[in-house]
Design goal:
With 231 residues, the protein is α+β, with helices and mostly antiparallel strands. The protein has helices spanning 14-39, 49-57, 112-124, 132-141, 195-200, 212-215, and strands at residues 43-45, 66-69, 74-79, 82-85, 146-151, 160-163, 166-178, 183-192, 206-211, 219-224. The protein has a six-stranded antiparallel beta sheet with strand order 5-10-6-7-8-9. Strands 1-2-3-4 form a four-stranded mixed beta sheet, sandwiched between helices. It starts with 13 loop residues before the first helix and ends in a 7-residue tail after the last strand.
Length: 231
């Protein structure tokens, strides 16, 4: 007597089916992450701009990648096979002035992400930008902090203070009287913006204090979100 087989679902129960679906979701997320990471511009550090240029010629560095040469204070982004500096110092790179349009508008904005990241690296390192006005306008328009020079007394919480060769996030600030010496002082509680900034100063929050008469004329650089006049 022959038996007639019946179709069965691929999974015997809902739990197994859910596990399979979860595996597919995880695989899809991992794939999407890999694609996104591959699309992001990579940051390369070189001993000289000449070495960086050679790496581009040899196709070791890809279109839209970013080149950093600390010894020369130069940062560039790669346009196909042409590294263009976004810093005032350009070394062996093509100077910013060679672009026919502002960097963010070049090639219908295809390089905007690379330009923005390159500018942030330059700002973090205190390298002068080749087109600071365009960079500032773009950062204001997108609600990102802009470097400005102000008297120390005008530093506010949430500013990013450039000091001691690092970037410090200002947690709180104000003035007070030092009871021991009877002197007014400006103070701020700060913390390194990055792990590297913290390693070079202190791991946690720490304090800075300066006499008020010094803080009144001492000009410092901070990064601050400025209002967008065109909004």
């Amino acid at each position: 007597m022959s038996s007639i087989g019946t179709e069965r679902p691929a999974y015997d129960n809902r739990q197994a089916a859910a596990a399979h679906q979860l595996g597919q979701i995880i695989e899809a997320v991992d794939t999407a992450r890999e694609v996104a990471e591959e699309a992001e511009p990579k940051v390369w550090h070189f001993a000289s701009s000449a070495d960086a240029f050679a790496a581009v010629d040899q196709e070791q560095v890809k279109d839209r990648d970013i080149l950093v040469v600390e010894s020369e204070g130069a940062v560039a982004f790669v346009v196909v096979t042409m590294p263009v500096a976004i810093t005032d110092q350009h070394g062996a790179f093509h100077p910013y002035s060679h672009l026919p349009l502002p960097a963010r508008e070049f090639c219908a904005g295809d390089y905007a992400d690379s330009v923005e990241r390159a500018e942030q690296i330059a700002i973090d390192q205190s390298y002068p930008l080749a087109d600071p006005d365009a960079a500032e306008a773009a950062r204001i328009a997108t609600g990102k902090p802009v470097p400005i020079d102000i008297p120390r007394l005008l530093v506010e919480p949430r500013d990013i203070l450039h000091a001691f060769g690092v970037r410090l996030r200002v947690i709180d600030t104000g003035t007070r009287i030092d009871a021991e010496i009877g002197q007014s002082e400006w103070w701020a509680t700060v913390q390194g913006v990055t792990e590297g900034d913290s390693r070079r100063t202190y791991r946690g929050r720490w304090g800075i204090a300066v006499p008020v008469e010094t803080a009144a004329w001492d000009i410092v650089t901070v990064e601050r979100v400025l209002p967008n006049a065109s909004a």
